What we know:
This protein has 7 helices and 12 strands. By secondary structure, it is α/β, with parallel strands linked by helices. The relative contact order is 0.18.
Amino acid sequence: xxxxxxxxxxxxxxxxxxxxxxxxxxxxxxxxxxxxxxxxxxxxxxxxxxxxxxxxxxxxxxxxxxxxxxxxxxxxxxxxxxxxxxxxxxxxxxxxxxxxxxxxxxxxxxxxxxxxxxxxxxxxxxxxxxxxxxxxxxxxxxxxxxxxxxxxxxxxxxxxxxxxxxxxxxxxxxxxxxxxxxxxxxxxxxxxxxxxxxxxxxxxxxxxxxxxxxxxxxxxxxxxxxxxxxxxxxxxxxxxxxxxxxxxxxxxxxxxxxxxxxxxxxxxxxxxxxxxxxxxxxxxxxxxxxxxxxxxxxxxxxxxxxxxxxxxx
Length: 313
C-alpha cells in the first residue's frame, strides 16, 4: 500500500484556512492511492516558533490568539476532515493544538478511512519552552490504534527521545508509526542538528519497533515568518524552510525523503511482509526481549477528565 508524509506549511494562526489545507491534502492523497497520511506536529493552527526566540513577557497577545485558533475536539471542528477521509478512503494522523477547557494540549488525532476517530494521543511532556503553552498528557492516550491500514501508533517530536514511551508503543505491535515534528530547522542554529535528529530517531524507532515510520515536518513559509515578524519585529534567528520529512521501512532504510521549503506529499510503497522479515532478526516485544529481567510499567489511568473522541460523521 502507499503511505505519505505531509511536507507542507500550515496557515499560521488560521484554523479554518489550515483545515482547508488538510482537506485538500487528503484529497490529493486519495487521488494518489495513499492509504495512510501523516501530518506534522500541531499542523492546526501551526507550530508556535516564537516560543523559543521571543522573551516570554512579550508573547501574551500572540499566545492568546494561538489559544483561540486551537482546536476543540468536537464533531463540528473536524467534521470536514472526517468526511474527506471517508470520501477519499484515507486514514489520517493529524497534529493539532487542542483546546480543552482552559488548557492547550499538543495532540495527534487518529482518523480512519470511514471518517471515525479511532483515538487521540496527547504529548506526555512538552519540550523545553513548549511548557509555557501546552499542558502535559498522560498514559491514557499512549497506545496503538486500529485504522483501515492496520495498527498505527504515533509520538510527537521530543517524545521520540523518551525511550520508555517508544517501548510502550512497541508493546502494542504497531505496523505503522507516525512521528509528528515541527520544522525545527526553521530556527537557524538548530537546522543541521534537527534534521539529523529526526532522521536518527526515526531510524532507531523503525528498527526497534519493526514497523514503517512516517516522519512529517512542516517547513517555515515566507507567509508564516511574516506573521511572526508582524507581531514581534525582525526575527534573525528564524529562516524559511528547515524541515525534513521521511518514510522508512522496518529495517530503517529510507523509502522516501524530502527537505526544503517547497510543499509536497512524500509518498512511498509499504510492503507489510517486510515486517515479518525484520522481526525475525529483532523483535523488541518478542524473542529479543527479556521480560523476566526488563519490565515496563505504564500508568494508563487518565489524570485529566478528557472528552470522548468526537464522532465526525
